[in-house]
Design goal:
It is built from ten helices and twelve strands. It has helices at about 15-30, 45-55, 65-70, 80-85, 100-115, 130-140, 155-165, 225-235, 245-260, 265-270; strands spanning about 5-10, 30-40, 60, 75, 90, 95-100, 120-125, 145-150, 175, 185-190, 210-220, 240. The structure holds 2'-monophosphoadenosine-5'-diphosphate.
Length: about 280
């Protein structure tokens, strides 16, 4: 019997999740159906309720419903609690299990696919919104030498640094501040988790932040060479990446959580890659 899954959002036409999960199902021999579900604003709970009533087994959640899903869940995983947002749900009877796989997907892409260990490295993350919240604990679990969070609104970065410091299991120094606080400090991996790239803007990052051999990673996907990646390239960074691998890896995490089998992501990443030009 076919098990049904969906991605819910508004808009939803742009979502790559059906393509990704259908590819994973084919590659692993899983009998699933996966559709796009457009819900009206304010209509999240009703749409999910109808999907569950029809036997739906799980869902991915995209904008603008990640907070609605957080409120709707009965069982929030620590990843979702720290992120303050949910991107995957699993339905079991009355229970709604909820996860956020974005951060773990990001780290898997960096360490496993790009071959760039974070352990012992100096890591900088730009932005203090939902994307950063999701990435913090998975990055800290890699035991970097230190982690800096910088944000346009400085207080948000300071709050997040404090929160991450409290929740991490290790003792990685975590520092939060503004772009001006960076001075000439250089990092081995710089992640752009701001939404600046969506409007082709550039966070006020000094080029000196990129250490020789650094990785510059844009969490947004499919935007080509964003202003952030261009800055990195002009600073001499040769390892540039966007969020295509993160997208494929967070989907693989959800797929494994639902189906108990881990798909290989290489083909999907290749298929969805947009050249960084
Ligand atoms: P997301 O869920 O994608 O992280 P968000 O929670 O709205 O989205 O957060 C967006 C982040 O991008 C914020 O950290 C925001 O900075 P502020 O907190 O100061 O608003 C950051 N951001 C957006 N546009 C930016 C820009 N042009 N330059 C620098 N930071 C920017």
């Amino acid at each position: 019997m076919t098990d049904h899954y969906a991605v819910i959002g508004n808009p939803i036409e742009q979502s790559k999740s059906p393509l990704i999960h259908t590819a994973y199902a084919q590659a692993t021999g899983q009998d699933i159906g996966y559709t796009k579900l457009l819900a009206p604003l304010g209509g999240f709970a009703a749409a999910v309720g109808a999907f569950r009533a029809a036997g739906g087994r799980g869902m991915n959640v995209t904008a603008p419903f990640k907070l609605d899903a957080f409120a709707y869940a009965t069982d929030l995983a620590p990843s979702a609690q720290m992120a303050g947002a949910v991107n995957a749900m699993k339905f079991e009877g009355d229970k709604v299990h909820a996860e956020n796989f974005d951060g773990v997907g990001l780290v898997r892409d960096v360490v496993h696919n790009l071959g760039c260990p974070l352990q012992g490295r100096r890591v900088l993350i730009l932005g203090a919104g939902g994307a950063t919240r999701g990435a913090l604990l998975p990055i800290l679990a890699q035991r970097p030498a230190e982690l800096w969070i910088v944000n346009r609104t400085v207080a948000k970065a300071q709050e997040l640094a404090q929160l991450a410091g409290q929740h991490q299991t290790g003792s990685v120094p975590v520092r939060g501040g503004g772009y001006a606080d960076l001075g000439t400090v250089a990092f081995d991996a710089v992640f752009n988790a701001t939404s600046a790239s969506l409007t082709a803007e550039l966070p006020p990052l000094p080029a000196s932040a990129f250490a020789p051999g650094c990785l510059a990673y844009e969490l947004a996907y499919g935007k080509g060479l964003t202003p952030f990646l261009r800055l990195a390239q002009q600073a001499g960074v040769t390892q540039l990446a966007d969020g295509v691998g993160m997208l494929a890896e967070q989907a693989a995490e959800a797929f494994e959580w639902w189906r108990g089998v881990r798909p290989d992501t290489a083909d999907v990443i290749q298929q969805l890659t947009v050249p960084l030009v």
